[in-house]
C-alpha cells in the first residue's frame, strides 16, 4: 500500500436537518447489535446511509463506540481495504490493530495471520464497537470477500458489523441466518409508510398535499424515498399538483436522470440488454424471459438481479415470478422505445407466443394488442370463447353473436380477421379487451363483433 489513508472515508456522515424520524428501524438496528452482522441491503435511494447515520448518533447513549468506513472501488486492493478497516476500528477503540498494520506492510504475511492478530486485539478490548461498512456493493475482489468471511466467523461478542449495500454480499449469509446471527433490513422495510411519506412531503419538503395526494404518490413510488424526493422537487412551483401526481411516471426528467446515472449506466451490456428487453413484461419468470430475449439464462439472471437489488420485486416465495418496480419499469420501457423502437413489436409477439403455449391466453391477447397485431388478437379472443371452461355455453353464445365457424371466409381466419388488421386507429377498438379477457363467452363474442365491425 502506498500513500496516506483518506481520513474523510472514516468519518460518520453528518446527519441532515428535517429528517423523518424512523424509530421502528432504529429500534430494530439496536436489537440487531446483539448479533454478529446486520445487513442493510436495498437499491439506490432507499435511505440506507441516512438511516445508519441517524442510528449511530445515539450509539454513545447505548454504550457503544461507532466506527465507519465509506468504501469505493479502489478498496478492492486487499492491503488497502484492511488498512482502512483497521484505521476505522482504531478511531473507535484506541490501540486495536497496531500489530495487524505492521503485518500488512509485509506482502509475505497471509491475510489470515493479519486478521488473527486483529481479532485477538478486539477480543482483549473492553469496548463494545459497531463497525459500519458503507457502499459494500463496490467490493467484488475474492481475496477481500474471503477475508471478510473469516472475520465474521471469528468475530468476538463485543464487536458488531453492519454492512450497507445495494447488493447482497458474497458472504456466508445463509449460515449466519441459520444461527440467528444475521439481522436483515431490506427495501420492504426501508420504504416510507404512508405516514412517513406524508411527514416527508409536507413537513420536510414544505408541500401542502392532501391525504389523497400523498396516498396516490406513495402508491406510485411504492415508498421509494429517492422517487418521493424527486417528485417533490418537480412539484415545487406547480399550480396543478393533483394533475402532476396523476401523471407522475418514469418519464419525469429527475427520475430518468437519477436511474440512468445511478443504475443503468453501471450495468454490464448483457444485463442492460436483458433489462430493456424484458421491460415489456408485467411479470417475469426465467422461461418467459428466455422466450422474450431469445437467449438462455433467464432464471439465473433474475436471481442475480434479485441479489443485486435492481428494483426487482418477488411475487412468490419460490422465486419463480418477479416484477420491476413501477417507476424503474417506466424508465426501462422509455429507453427501449428510444434506443430500439423497431424491436418492441417483436418482443411483444414473443411474449404472446409464450403465454399462448403455456395456456395463459389473456396475457397472450394483451401482448398481441400491444404489438398492434389485431388479426392475431381477434383470433385469440375467438379461440378463448370457443374453448373456454364451459364449451357448450361458449358455442351457444358464439352462434347467438353471429360468429361463424372457422373456414367460411368470414371468421377469425377470413375477412373478419382481415378487417381487424387495418389502420393503427383501430387500436382503440381493441382497448375493451383488457377488461374483458377474463369474462364469460358472451363478453368475448361482443368484443369479437366489435373488432369485426372495425
The general outline is: globular
State mean pLDDT (0 to 100 scale).
82
Instruction: Look up the CATH topology of the largest domain.
Output: Rossmann fold
Number of helices: 25
Going by helix content, strand content and strand pairing, the class is: alpha/beta
Low-confidence stretches: 390-454
Largest sheet: 5 strands, parallel
Distance between the termini: 74 Å
Total number of strands: 7
CATH top-level class of the largest domain: Alpha Beta
Instruction: Determine Rg (CA atoms, Å).
Output: 28 Å
Number of domains: 3
| CATH architectural type of the largest domain | 3-Layer(aba) Sandwich
Strands of the biggest beta sheet: in what spatial order?
2-3-4-1-5
Strand content: 5-15%
CATH superfamily of the largest domain: P-loop containing nucleotide triphosphate hydrolases
Helix content: 40-55%
Structure overview:
By secondary structure, the protein is α/β, with parallel strands linked by helices. Helix content is 55%, strand content 8%. It has a 5-stranded parallel β-sheet, sandwiched between helices. Strand 6 (312-314) and strand 7 form a beta hairpin. Helix 15 (286-293) packs across helix 16 (298-307). The longest helix has 17 residues, at 341-357.
